[in-house]
Design goal:
The structure is a homodimer of 338-residue chains. Chain A is α/β, with parallel strands linked by helices and 338 residues long. Helix content of chain A is 48%, strand content 14%. An 8-stranded mixed beta sheet of chain A has the order 3-10-9-4-5-8-6-7, with helices on both faces. A two-stranded parallel sheet of chain A has the order 1-2. The longest helix of chain A is centred in the C-terminal third of the chain and has 26 residues. Chain A starts with 6 loop residues before the first helix and ends with a helix. The relative contact order of chain A is 0.16. Chains A and B meet through helix 8, helix 9 and helix 10 of A and helix 8, helix 9 and helix 10 of B.
């Protein structure tokens, strides 16, 4: 119910995903039944695996997430989480209010044992590659341990889902030296050094788009600002490019001749191919797709969610988080005994 | 002594600035005399207003700023600050270690009465305009009052030096509502509402490049990361553009026909025209130019520093900070009395 383009686009994306993957056994459309039926394409679902689960309420962008999730028990996001919680579904994809999805996952799914806070990971494209930014807006006031756990979870996501063999993990800070940063990052650095991940230390803003790092951890305040600033700048540069290239006929001709170059850049820097942002650390696979996602992006998000299930992402996270906690508490014990 | 391209470029920039502005009475080149003389252009200074002040030491990028400023008493940055402190110079331009410049300004110039912390303001270009980002890396752990004072100082800089009539001031946060943010921004919001500036509330990353805001305040940790991330993304997009436009002869021809468009974009998004980042809140005008600054950028920085003097930037800051402090403490008294 949460997308900018209405139910029809979501249904079409879901149909594409089902057509591409015969192993999906069922796909539930959770929301207002009347709206969903009204938005059905000609010929109905055209796939017996598609089902509607009615929910009479919707979380809006104005709702306070935690309070709304508690109050609107018949909202589509709460009902969808219950399907996952009850084992009727393995994964959930939503285009709605990010805070609401996060709150619903926290209350209805709960966190994987050992995980202190869930996080939202965003995959940000770069000219040569991409990197995972975690947390990108859910956990505003982080503790050092949260960043350490993000390092573990982000590393697993990068390896299992994005296919990066030995992901380089960095803490986003204001200098590469261990001594540079704020209280949070200085403490997190000490923890991350002890983890069984490929920790490369601090990374700066300058490192982000140079293929220096695969997983960037930070608190949700910083992550959200970096994510949105970069999105905003990329859009601004595209619009400036368009304005300048259409300023006179000579430039227009040049732009026409080089149009495949611009298309390639747009494709390269398009976050839609990654299918949305995974919420990591919960007892269930949850993906937040962009509110403006269209058919292709929704199909991608569904594809990514099935991959997360097949790779047993959450099983691996549970195992590695337990190992990380063991390492860190063993270290702490040594320090105390010394 | 701190630039990437050596003394020669700095001297040439200084000569250009002197030629453009006959009202400058003296320009001191502070640094190693032998190196400066060796880098002189043919014909020497060609201007009697140019003088050399010898300094035997240099702050390097590896120095810990505060300690190095205390220890290296004969470093060029310390000697240059002394010229300002002693009234021999009105303004200082440096290409060196930002932390070192900030520490030297703190120790040798001191802060304007009433200013709790100095800050570094960066002017960031956008497709249609620019905005001032403050603090962009000096004050890592900020208090709410620091952000409020940045709102005042940034607003003055935007009006007096950048010519913005009624600068819109925003706090960088993760949502526009007053309730969105971290502890620091929530408290700073309450203070900024009471100031005599055009405070528009919180701004998000999405607002930065859309001409929604003229002065963006944040702590130095966030500011530095946003600044560097955006610089990095802009460079990455230029290099991607170049790669794609040279990929085959058709695109190359197109790029040639549209080359003025790319030139216009580069010029529009080039931070060098702003002449560097002012350090605000100190008893003296201080500008940090980019380490990679060339002649034109150095001349710009000198021009901006003379404008800051002529507009009595620091006099206005002193007056407005005193007024702001009065307003905020009067409010506090009312609250206490109630």
């Amino acid at each position: 119910m949460g997308g900018d383009h209405g139910c029809g686009v979501v249904i079409e994306g879901a149909i594409q995903a089902l057509q591409a993957d015969k192993r999906i056994r069922a796909l539930y459309l959770v929301g207002d039944r009347a709206q969903i039926h009204a938005a059905l394409p000609r010929g109905g679902f055209r796939d017996h695996r598609m089902r509607v689960v009615h929910a009479s309420e919707v979380l809006t962008m104005d709702d306070k997430p935690a309070a709304a999730v508690r109050k609107k028990k018949d909202s589509s996001i709460v009902r969808a989480m219950e399907l996952v919680h009850d084992g009727k579904a393995d994964a959930l994809v939503s285009l709605g209010n990010t805070g609401g999805i996060f709150a619903a996952a926290t209350f209805r799914l709960g966190r994987i044992a050992g995980v202190d806070r869930g996080g939202i990971a965003t995959i940000i494209p770069t000219p040569d590659q991409h990197f995972v930014l975690l947390d990108s807006g859910a956990n505003i006031e982080c503790k050092p341990m949260h960043l350490a756990q993000y390092a573990v979870m982000g590393s697993i996501y990068s390896r299992e889902i994005l296919g990066c063999q030995n992901p380089r993990v960095g803490i986003l800070s204001i200098g590469t030296e261990e001594s540079k940063g704020n209280e949070l990052t200085l403490q997190a650095f000490k923890l991350c050094k002890r983890l069984d991940v490929n920790f490369i230390g601090n990374v700066e803003g300058h490192d982000l788009f140079k293929n220096h790092v695969d997983v960037v951890v930070c608190d949700g305040f910083v992550g959200n600002i970096v994510l949105k600033s970069c999105e905003s700048l990329a859009l601004a540069m595209f619009s400036l490019l368009k304005r300048e290239l259409t300023a006179n006929p000579g430039r227009q001709l040049g732009a026409l001749l080089a149009k495949n170059a611009f298309r390639a850049i747009r494709r390269r820097m398009d976050p839609e191919v990654y299918g949305g942002a995974p919420l990591l650390g919960f007892n269930g696979v949850v993906l937040k797709a962009h509110g403006s996602a269209r058919e292709r992006a929704i199909a991608s998000a569904i594809r990514v969610s099935t991959e997360s299930i097949r790779h047993d992402l959450n099983g691996i996270i549970a195992e590695q988080i337990a190992r990380a906690d063991e390492r860190l508490s063993a270290e702490a014990a040594v320090v105390t005994a010394a």
